[in-house]
Amino acid sequence: MKYIYEEKAGPNGPTLLLLHGTGGIESDLLPLAGIIDPNANVLSVRGNVLENGMPRFFRRLEEGVFDEEDLIKRTEELHEFLNEASQKLGFDRKQITAIGYSNGANIAGSLLFHYKDSLQKAILHHPMVPRKGIDLPDLTGTKVFIAAGDNDPMCPPEEAEELQQLLTNGGADVDLHWESNGHQLTMNEVKAAASWYAN
Ligand code: MLT
Fold first, then answer.
1. For the domain that residue 58 is a member of, what is the CATH number?
2. 12 CA distance to ligand 1 middle (Å)
3. 138 with 169: CB under 8 angstroms?
4. How far apart are the C-alpha atoms of 126 and 64, rounded to whole Å?
5. With a 6 A CB cut-off, is 153 part of the ligand 1 pocket?
6. Distance, CA 102 to ligand 1 centroid (Å)?
7. For the purposes of burial, counting CB atoms within 10 Å of the CB of 45, is it exposed (0-12), middle (13-18) or buried (19 or more)?
8. Which uninterrupted H or E stretch holds 139?
């Protein structure tokens, strides 16, 4: 996978995993890392799938309808990439906080849905429920911050609440933050994520 790595915390400190939205690239969310934790290592990845030239982390059949088979395959690919990258780049595999927006939040959610201990924490900006009707791994100890829009046309509020419920049922500790700016990633929610992370 194409990525940017910035070593700041060394092998024993935390690492922020940045996952862009549809049509984004690996440099898009770098400013967020500086706000959430300027002292953490940063691993920012580009999605491997192209939709009309726009990078994504997995295929979709139409807006809001995911290609489940591809989602499962790409989630495994990202999980294994993290295992290998931690060895190669020398960061602690157990201290990864994902920061994802939209499609990037959905693949981060999918890592949580499929793998125990893939992420220590996750900050999900405008996520959806990645898959319905599956048993989640034991997520005890995993901390999740969801920023959702009460008027988000792409990721409706009920979906954010369902995601919170499913992750909580899996044992995760989940905070849900509301905004009213549609599907936009706002500075206000980034600041709320930063204070959640700091605590
Ligand atoms: C997705 O496909 O992951 C969601 O519809 C959000 C997006 O368009 O990126």
1. 3.40.50.1820
2. 33
3. no
4. 12
5. no
6. 6
7. buried
8. none
Q: How far is the CA of 164 from the centre of ligand 1 (A)?
A: 18
Instruction: Confirm whether pTM is higher than 0.90.
Output: yes
The per-residue pLDDT of the chain, averaged, comes to 98
Number of domains the chain contains: 1
Annotated catalytic residues are 102, 152, 183
For residue 88, name the pLDDT band (cuts at 50, 70, 90). very high
Residue 171 sits in which domain range?
A: 3-198
What are the helix (H) ranges across the chain? 30-36, 68-89, 103-114, 157-169, 187-198
Per-residue model confidence as pLDDT tens digits over 37-67: 999 999 999 999 999 999 999 999 999 999 9
User: Would you say the CB of residue 110 lies under 6 angstroms from ligand 1?
Assistant: no
Q: Which atom of ligand 1 is nearest to the CA of 60?
A: 2
Check pocket membership of 4 for ligand 1, CB cut-off 6 A: no
Whose Cα sits closest to atom 1 in ligand 1? 103
